[in-house]
Amino acid sequence: MGIRFNALNNALPSLRMEGVQSRPPAETLPANVSPTGGIAQPSLTAAEPLNGRLVAPFPPNNAGGQRVTSAVAPAQEQGDMPMQPLEAAIEADGKVDGLQQALNQPAARVRAFRFLMAAESVRGRELEARYDQLEHRLSTVNARLQRAESIMVQIDARLERARLQHDLEMVAGDIRRFRLEHAFEASASVPETVEPEPPEPSQSGPATSQPSAPTRQPVLNLFA
């Protein structure tokens, strides 16, 4: 039984020679049976494109066991790459003059693509995006700072008002205390006048005199 080869036909030369000696000629086998003993698989050819972008020719026997070298042709040079997103990106960037005329040729598309994918261009766009982000954050912080300053002004005004109210209450208490002390001093300096009681009239005779009026005491004006 022969030795099977993989899809890329990259087996070593020694193994390939042993398999060739033991397998029957390909002319006597059915169409759907490969010379290695398995079901024949469709082989890749040079005209078969891979995923619509690369063309990789594979020699049938890979003589000498050398690594297969594929001629990779970029899709940009063939002109089959859709350029709508690329054109929109360049138009939004606004750094390429004459975009419509430049993109009419495939080579110009390749240059535009390489310009956008260059390390300097990518770095520049990253820096610009970073700058825009920092500028937006700075404006947000400035708005928050203005709001905080207004709140601090309100807090300062409220503290000042509370301090003034406390001072007013203290001064009003001092005024009431001063008035009370002054009233007590005034009442202590005035002497009390006591009139002698009149003699009682005799029961037999008529009353010769009328009883005197009661003595008036000084009244302190505490709520003056």
Structural topology:
Blueprint: H1 13-22, E1 49-50, E2 54-55, H2 75-78, H3 84-93, H4 99-102, H5 106-117, H6 119-189
Antiparallel strand pairs: 1-2
Describe this structure in words.
The chain is mainly α. The chain has 3 domains: 13-65, no CATH class; 76-117, no CATH class; 120-187. Helix content is 50%, strand content 2%. It is built from 6 helices and 2 strands; from the N terminus they run αββααααα. It has helices at 13-22, 75-78, 84-93, 99-102, 106-117, 119-189; strands at 49-50, 54-55. A two-stranded antiparallel ribbon has the order 1-2. The termini are far apart. Residues 187-224 are annotated as: Disordered. Residues 124-165 form a coiled coil. Residues 202-215 have a biased composition (Polar residues). Keywords: Coiled coil.
Oligomer: single chain
Radius of gyration: 58 Å
> What is the percentage of strand-forming residues?
under 5%
- Arithmetic mean of pLDDT: 64
- Count up the domains: 3
Total beta strand runs: 2
The SS-based structural class is: mainly alpha
Q: What overall form do the CA principal axes indicate?
A: rod-shaped
Q: What is the helix tally? A: 6
State the distance separating the first and last CA atoms. Answer: 132 Å
Secondary-structure element order, N to C: HEEHHHHH
Helix content: 40-55%
* Main sheet attributes: strand count, strand direction, barrel closure: 2 strands, antiparallel
Ranges where pLDDT stays below 50 over 5 or more residues in a row are 42-59, 62-83
Strand order of the largest sheet: 1-2
